[in-house]
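[Meeting: bench + compute handoff]

Bench side (C.D.) handed over the final construct sequence. Compute side (W.E.) agreed to return the predicted structure before the next meeting so the bench team could plan truncations. Sequence as handed over:
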Amino acid sequence: MDPFGLGFDPQSVPAVTKAVVPYIVAAVRSFGGRLWSKAEDAAVDDVAGWGSRLALRLRAEDSAGAGFVVVEAVDDVLADPENPDTHAALRVKVGKALTGSPRLLADIVDLLRQAQQATLAGDRSVAVTDPPVPPAGT
């Protein structure tokens, strides 16, 4: 079931994890070592900005040290952002964090929904069209 129109089941940890990691990787590629400070910058609203917000929320999770484990995995991506193995390890750690906390899963799904809506409505969105051109002579 997809009540938010996300294109995946928001109760499926693997599906949510698969949606989260590309945002975080984009943030790592954009911000590098400044990722954690940029995560708190509310003015950032592009894909990397949403990745930062998602990473910050995951970092804040304190159940069974899940936030620490995700931070370690993000740091591994920071060290080698083009390595698909670091991305896979991040997916595993994010999945474990989401599995361990239904509240975190709900929060992350909400952030993904907001990111999708912002992306679809943003200035750089493919959904944005130019204003209509008035007919000649008007």
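W.E. noted at the follow-up: The chain is about 65% helix and 0% strand. C.D. will use this when planning the next construct.
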